[in-house]
Amino acid sequence: xxxxxIGNSAVNTxxxxxxxLAMAGHSVRLASWPGAEAALEPVRRRGGLELAxxxxxxxxxxxxxxxxxxxxSAKAALDGAEFVFLDMLAPEFEARFSTIxxxxxxxxxxHVNIHGYWPALRLAPILNAAGLSGVGPPPEKWSTLNYVF
Length: 149
Fold this sequence. Notes:
Layout: E1 2-6, H1 13-23, E2 27-31, H2 41-46, E3 49-51, E4 64-66, E5 69-70, H3 74-78, E6 83-87, H4 93-100, E7 109-113, H5 119-129, E8 146-148
Parallel strand pairs: 1-2, 1-6, 2-5, 6-7
Antiparallel strand pairs: 3-4, 7-8
């Protein structure tokens, strides 16, 4: 599967997802949020991401050095992605999502990883303003974290 991972919160969720999915055989493109490009420099210097811990808690079942493709922009990472994983802090949610919404395409599945409240519901105004109405889960499932475009 073609995967885009954008961002890496303080608990390194974005990096862990990118490393694990790449080790599982997916084509993973990793980018930072605009203005946070320096976060990828240690990954470039090391030549990848080190996945550590209990391999039973990973999708790949593997540990070690993983080499997702590093991209210079979220737009480049999103191009052609089937699955999009977004990692950010709750206070940044709307502002960060607004920087990429124009690059999302029909058919992409977007998973939002934040430690906050109602992330899918909070996306609705941004999606509507971008002309992407009728997108996402029905109101009775607004607590879900996934949107399908």
